[in-house]
Amino acid sequence: MKKLLVILLLAVVAYSLGTALMSVKFGENRLGNVQDEGTVSAFYLNNTPEKLSVANVVTAIVVNYRGFDTLGEVSVLFLAAMGLGSILYHRHKEGEEEEAILKPSSQLIQAGSKLIFPAILVLGAYVFIHGHLTPGGGFQGGAIIATGFLLMMMAYKDYKVSHKVLTWVESIAGVTFAGIGMWGLIVSQSFLENTLPIGALNNLFSGGIIPIIYIAVGFKVAAELTGVLDTLLNIKDKH
Amino acid sequence: MMFNVIVILVLAIILLAAAVYAVAQKDLLYAVLATGVISLILSVFFFIMQAPDVALTEAAIGIALTTIIFIITIRNTSRREDEVPVEHEPDRVEKESKIIKQ
Amino acid sequence: MDLDNNLLMSIGVYGSAIGLILIGLYAVLIKKHLTKIVIGLSIIDAGIHLLFIAIGYISGGTAPIFSPAGEKIVANGGIMVDPVPQALVLTAIVIGFAVTAVALSLVIRLYRHHHTARIDQIKSLKW
Q1: Among the partner residues B8, B20, B46, nearest to C12 by beta-carbon distance
Q2: Number of folded domains in chain C?
Q3: Which residues of B touch C32 (CB under 8 A)?
Q4: Is residue A48 a contact partner of residue A207, using CB atoms and an 8 Å limit?
Q5: What are phi and psi of C62, to 5 degrees?
Q6: Which residue range is the domain that position A150 belongs to?
Q7: pTM, rounded to two decimals
Q8: Position C26 pLDDT exceeds 80
Q9: A176 in a domain, yes or no?
């Protein structure tokens, strides 16, 4: 009986989505003329290379035009990491035998991961430093660095990442983001206003506060995701 | 032009087949790997539709990190979907209620 | 690669997005194991992201980046793809991962307490 009702519900959802998407033609040009600035996207595309000197329009939207939403997203990630740590908290009682869930890996992985780990760190740092020139940015670079740390944690059984260092890096990066916003409020009465000088297009030092914010976000996301993976991999199992 | 249509249709068929496999398979490890394949094909779709930032984000977060947290969960819970738990000793509450009822 | 607008192309792209949403919804409503339900949530997320990017695509457009090659394309009269849905989906992917991580930690905690992860075997909530 329940399966019949669920299939009926799925048919209704499919029909309504299908007929709604029938009137949205795939690949139709809805921006109009970019110079006229008739739509929001046309405004962003027209003003980004001139007023902000930033090459990547998606980065300019995420950090500058919609910067407050990025502050909210960073705080949601922080809340998720905190919630995960507090849900999985396990008080160590005396006299219980616990074993870690990781077993030692083979010789090939142990030798290879030591070689490739610095390259992954450099790649992640490159991606979030050049976020305003090429595709990339803080979130992508942070995820790449966290994957590098995951490789080391899985290859060596007792590879420890110090939680104190991770906490300090994350806190300083978060305070930098909010501090730049407050500084914009003090100097020119608008939170997260772009106040530093904007250079020429396609230079590394261009775009005002945009590279600084993305570097802070890259450090914060890398530290958070590494902490989450460290918490999950160290769940002691009572067997 | 026909080549583009064939590529999109082949990718769409692989995507839907991986999704059906992920839902129908009872061994949870294979279902999680199928979810990783969905993220991979989705990243290729994003690149074809001229969105390189989104393709990088989906590849970095969806393929490696989501799969590893699912595998850690499977290690700490059951491996198969149709496992019935073995009988364990009754909890503290049931023991005390038995004592009070006497 | 340039995707133009004909019926097979829109059925391929829109159809796979709607198909992913329906398959994920089926897994959330019918399945009984908690990890399978979280897998279904992750599949629904993937379908919605694909739908957003597919709506924002413009035929013949290129990526919205003003590199030296991009400036040359715009100076010759080319068009760029809509950048606003890409910014929305960027945020949505990261938040979807955070929600999945918290949901899986709840599943681990429930398993530790009840020694089962199936919702029809968790009995101690019934009076």
Answers
A1: B8
A2: 1
A3: 81
A4: no
A5: -120, 175
A6: 53-85+103-233
A7: 0.91
A8: yes
A9: yes
